[in-house]
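User: Hello! My lab partner asked me to get a predicted holo structure for this protein. The small molecule is adenosine-5'-triphosphate, SMILES included with the sequence. Please write out the structure tokens.
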Amino acid sequence: MSDWLAIDFGTSNTAAAYFHDGQAHQIQLEADKETIPTAVFFPQRSGRMEIGAVANAALIEGDEGRYMRALKSVLGTNLMSEQRLLGGRRLDFYDVISAFLGSVKSRAEAATGRTFVHALSGRPVRFHSKHPERNDQALADLTECYMRAGFKAVNFCPEPEAAALSLGHRLENGRYGLVVDIGGGTSDFTVFKAGTEIDIITSFGVRIGGTDFDRVLSYSQIMPHFGRGQRLTRLMAQDTLIAPNYIFHDLSTWEKIPFVYDPASLKLAKELMRDAVEPSKFARLVDVIEYQYGHELAFAVEDAKIACNAEQGPYRAPLNFLSDPILARITYDDFLTEVDGFKQELQDAMRITIDQAGLTPDQVQDIVLVGGSSLMGFVIDAINLVFNAPRIHQDAIFTAIVDGLALRSARIDHSKN
Ligand SMILES: Nc1ncnc2c1ncn2[C@@H]1O[C@H](COP(=O)(O)OP(=O)(O)OP(=O)(O)O)[C@@H](O)[C@H]1O
Ligand SMILES: [Mg+2]
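Assistant: Hello! Below are the structure tokens for the protein in complex with adenosine-5'-triphosphate.
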């Protein structure tokens, strides 16, 4: 009986599965859900850490406590060891990610009646594409978190390769396919050849994902409502008359939001409000920091991104959680301009992957799309700029990876573990 748990630990969502009776079985980590948000909530006064949709609900209901998401983005960075007071205890990201993975393990065991001793985890091809030296550290960090979560061993499989294993059979034998996995934190690509066995040819990846699209949308179109770019009546440090940008940048970045809730940021926001030409905008910034509305804001931006992508037009984002609620207008055309650099980088990454496989784009006629951000219209545009009228397969975007990991777990040489 397999004691391997397949885990797709994603920046935004996590799924688990196992192999049994010749097939992959997804495990419901929460009732009626194939995936759960990769999120945690620590109630203010001790109590149990919540994960997934329950953590999201606690945030939305305004429970007192600390919420965190996009934990995976922190792997391999210095933030891993930064401690925060969470539920009455000082914890760092190793503690938080281990606790999350430990909860996934125990829920999977409760749901299946099995004991999972080994984990086969997905991993992006590259956690950090601009800082390659952080890749090894990220993998070491994640390994440590799995061990602390109670697994005896963890193996890793690149996420797009897992997707190729689970969906590659949909292509006719002998055809080349490209998995395009655009998730919350990274974009990952695998070229494979379909056949009785799926032949993995090469993989490549860049650190670009939906949380980056949220970040640029928030920074450029939402943060001006909170004082970004506003003039001040007194000089700040560095002789500037404009509010400093880093606070708006951090507030737009999912994994940095908890770090904005410190006395220094609140003090800065209050000083900005005092010195502003237009204090009402900075009053909103003070509101967000003082009452810890950063994640509510990030969710409103993510919803706005999805809505204006679906409509391919403008959208009014309701910021109802603010003490003085506003409707923030989002312009789709401006959003497209803001993500144009990402679109270009995605095209480059696909060309590099194809080239690394020793193929030309004309030889790849099938694109297997996975990852929630593959639903962005500009991602499809990027694909059509590289490939000539490809056949696009898009029917298991949130579950292909975990299914492929479960299939892969059946082939692990058990004598080595
Ligand atoms: N309908 C949609 N349109 C556009 N984007 C979407 C849609 N639904 C989800 N997303 C985005 O998809 C992303 C999450 O996708 P997914 O669950 O595949 O990521 P992940 O596997 O957690 O991340 P990664 O694999 O990069 O670590 C989020 O950024 C989310 O905003
Ligand atoms: Mg993913």
